[in-house]
What we know:
Order of helices and strands: HEHEHEHEHEHEEH
Largest sheet: 5 strands, parallel
Number of strands: 7
Shape: globular
CATH architecture: Alpha-Beta Barrel
Amino acid sequence: GLLQVVKQCVRVPVFVMIRPRGGDFLYSDREVEVMKADIRLAKLHGADGLVFGALTEDGRIDTELCTALLAVCRPLPVTFHRAFDMVHDPLVALETLISLGFERVLTSGCDSSALEGLSLIKRLAEQAKGRIVVVPGGGITERNLQRILEGSTASEFHCSARSARDSGMKFRNPNVAMGASFSAPEYSIKVTDVAKVRTLNAIAKNIL
């Protein structure tokens, strides 16, 4: 439903993330069934690309599963998401993604944010030599975007560009939380901030 409405409202390409649950990136057979079904439905409803990641229990790219999922995704372009930041050896993992045929890899440089992982992101981009697009992501804001783009030599970047918006609810039950009591206020909604997006775009256009 979200994909259908988004496609009606925007003209930019829409890439859909295929992730059946939170947590790690080691998937069961049933979860793989869900991922394949999600990919088929995303394609059916106009996705311009897909995003997923899968690892083995020892922290390597799950080449067998990725190959199977890529086959379902084609001919759409595919990005390997920040599961990459959990790999045992990022330089080896990058070559694996290139050989499998991923177009992009999203990474914070295997650190808590793209700024802190900047040196590895730059190293990955140099290693890639245009064979795959290395996309910095993780904690990118208007305050650090210029430094990250210049320091990584990246041509693309990823960020949420969100702000919190207070709920319109007037009646509020303080005794009940819908599973979000420790992660976010119950009556607060995170939305894409148009002003932030415009500012980030302006910064990027001056650099790229």
